[in-house]
């Protein structure tokens, strides 16, 4: 059975964006970009909410930039994508389908039938999977910045018991933490 992994880049105080919706602190270095690319290459299907999908669809046609960014784009294009949205009517990328609502039982069946791990991105979508007990791992890249408020990576009011599986420090001060959800 495949794992469902929730991942995201966050500030030290746990926010993926500041109170104005900006995530300008998220500028991965080549080292960090390659690490995230290697992780993403293990994923067979990515589950996205509309907003995160609309940001990530940039990689569908990205051909500019350094080689490591172009390699990430190839990994993104080679991954199946499911976008959960009640407002989106068409997709802007290949290997993508829209589901109007998050169905925990459908995701559970997908995990059981998949031969590669699945990822889920964005806190508004991930909270449903976390509450349903579907998330097996949480991966976070903690940037060396404190935002003081904004949108949290992890849901407020939901207690999670975690076991540390892996940690790694990057030259820019970012730390990768990988946890098993107990």
Question: Keywords, please?
Answer:
26% helix; two-stranded antiparallel sheet; 182 residues; 10 strands; Dihydrofolate Reductase, subunit A; alpha/beta; eight-stranded mixed β-sheet
Structure description:
The longest helix has 11 residues, at 30-40. Strand 9 (162-169) and strand 10 form a beta hairpin. The protein is of the alpha/beta class and 182 residues long. The protein contains five helices and ten strands; from the N terminus they run ββαβααββαβαββββ. The model has no long low-confidence stretch (mean pLDDT 95). Helix 1 runs parallel beside helix 3. The strands form two sheets. It has an eight-stranded mixed beta sheet with strand order 5-4-3-6-1-7-10-9. It is 26% helix and 31% strand. The protein has one domain (4-181): Dihydrofolate Reductase, subunit A (3-Layer(aba) Sandwich).
What is the CATH C level class, in words? Answer: Alpha Beta
Distance between the termini: 17 Å
Structural class category: alpha/beta
**Helix share bin:** 25-40%
Question: Approximately what portion of the residues adopt beta-strand conformation?
Answer: 25-35%
Helix count from the secondary structure assignment: 5
CATH architecture title: 3-Layer(aba) Sandwich
Q: How many beta strands in the DSSP annotation? A: 10
Question: Any idea how many domains?
Answer: 1
Order of helices and strands: EEHEHHEEHEHEEEE
Order the strands across the largest sheet as they lie in space: 5-4-3-6-1-7-10-9
